[in-house]
Amino acid sequence: MNTLYPITGVGLGPGDPDLITVKGLRMLQLADVIFYPATSMADGRASSFSLPILQKLDMAHKAIPLSLPMGAEDRERNYLEAYSIIRKEYEKGLKVVVVSEGDILFYSTFGYILKLIRQDRIPFYLIPGMPAFVHGASEMGLPLVEGNGRFSVIALPSTFTEIEQKLTGNEALVVMKPKVLDGWYNFLKGIERPFFYAEYLGTGKQFVTSCADDLKERTIPYFAVVIFPSFK
Length: 232
Hints:
The protein is α/β, with parallel strands linked by helices. 28% of the residues lie in helices and 22% in strands. Strands 1, 2, 3, 4, 5 and 6 form a six-stranded mixed beta sheet that branches. Helix 6 (160-166) links the parallel strand 7 (151-155) and strand 8 (172-176). It starts with 6 loop residues before the first strand and ends with a strand.
């Protein structure tokens, strides 16, 4: 009978491979197989934010993509299929690692898979990673929150009104996945609140700004974040 090892989840961090934790890197090095999330594009190619990180860490030779589209359509079926692939490798007695960009459980694809792992009572081990907004605060060069201050996080906001309501006080606000809303330039120009915009943090495509005019003609990608630091 094969010795079975816990399925390990590793957060890769926001994009810069040097920002993975020491423990996370060690688990990648010990792994027999590393599964990473990928999205199938219309032209048949697979797109993945995690793969370039694994490549730079010299882990691509044991990396296998899991097709996990970002949309809600067929989400349950896609995750069940991905989990089935992971479980087969686990049952072979392999050291299986599943990675996700950012943190492993903060708006992460792994969160859905973890529910299935727990359902089957399979042992697991989790290694956190740095979320994009934490890296963004460093790039901003200002404290995100201080003292007894508070901050909120909104992902996939439905309207700018929802965001505006969160900005009525002096609390910090982080907006994840702002791509779902059109009109960021007009919104940011119209509010009297400092902000910091960042996309593709830690990669060669990184772009950051605190000037709304820089966003006038810019297309907001999926991997973007808007930070409103505490306002006093």
